[in-house]
Design brief:
The chain is of the alpha/beta class. About 60% of the residues lie in helices and about 15% in strands. The radius of gyration is 29 Å and the shape is elongated.
Length: about 280
């Protein structure tokens, strides 16, 4: 059994760690609330814009805009959205597992990767995948300008015909306790037949001009949505992970305190026995 000093030092260390996890939970909770507000503000605009475009696309020629070209798929790009930091439970591992599974199914030699976040960059760099761009150290000051800057390289890779499809793997925010790793096709733009079931509308200017104007805006909004969803999911996952760590630390402190009390009681009992034994020896002499 460990001595009293060792147990006391362990209790002190666990209490210090518990203070850190509590502070990290509070910081993550504050960031998550702000991120969730921004995400909720962006969702209706993104959905409405997508609805308008889905109604316009059947009536325009896909040759009108190179972002609409559907080509035979010989090479694919994946945009993998993770965080720069850990301590967020399975937030990063779920995305990385899903992305790597889909990439390996296609074949790593036929896939280009855009890494958003250090975790994605480090994961695929260690495994010698083809990384075109990586974006890190921007999450703390996340802005729509970041989405536009990141989107330029991704969209340009498609319009330059270096790849024929682009997919995005990210965490979708459901609620504080639930985030799902999702995979969506970003380019070329394709919508299901269900997306076309809108009443007839009149447009001014004509549909071709609207499509040319709205689709680049739609793609920037989609990138922005992926970043917001991922950031809110990261903070929610970190908040839950730090709450669990705080609770585990509390349980560990209880166990260590019990060990400390047992060890102290054993030491006191031993001292009493030694005193009684010494007293008996004195009587006999």
């Amino acid at each position: 059994m460990a001595n009293l000093k060792d147990i006391r030092n362990r209790i002190k260390s666990v209490k210090n760690i518990q203070k850190v996890t509590k502070a990290m939970k509070m910081v993550a909770a504050a960031k998550m609330r702000r991120a969730e507000e921004r995400m909720e503000e962006a969702r209706p605009y993104a959905q409405r814009l997508q609805s308008v475009i889905s109604h316009l696309l059947p009536d325009v020629e896909r040759e009108l805009l190179n972002l609409l070209h559907v080509r035979p798929v010989s090479r694919t790009a994946y945009v993998v959205v993770t965080s720069d930091r850990g301590f967020a439970g399975s937030f990063n591992s779920n995305v990385l597992k899903k992305a790597q599974s889909e990439i390996d199914e296609i074949g790593k030699n036929h896939v280009d990767i855009f890494c958003i976040g250090k975790k994605a960059r480090d994961h695929f760099k260690r495994r010698d995948y083809t990384i075109i761009e990586s974006h890190t150290e921007f999450w703390s000051e996340l802005s729509f300008g970041d989405a536009i800057q990141i989107g330029k390289g991704i969209i340009g890779h498609f319009t330059d015909e270096r790849v024929d499809e682009i997919h995005v793997v990210y965490n979708e925010f459901i609620n504080v306790a639930t985030q799902y790793a999702e995979s969506e096709k970003l380019l070329p733009l394709e919508f299901s037949d269900e997306d076309y079931s809108h009443p007839e509308r009149l447009y001014e200017p004509d549909k071709n001009q609207l499509v040319q104007s709205l689709i680049p805006r739609h793609l920037n909004i989609q990138i922005w949505k992926y970043l917001l969803e991922s950031y809110a999911s990261e903070q929610a996952a970190r908040m839950v992970a730090m709450e669990n760590a705080t609770e585990n630390a509390e349980e560990m402190i209880k166990d260590l305190t019990m060990q400390f009390n047992k060890a102290r009681q054993a030491a006191i009992t031993k001292e009493i026995l030694e005193i009684v034994g010494g007293a008996e020896a004195l009587k006999q002499t």
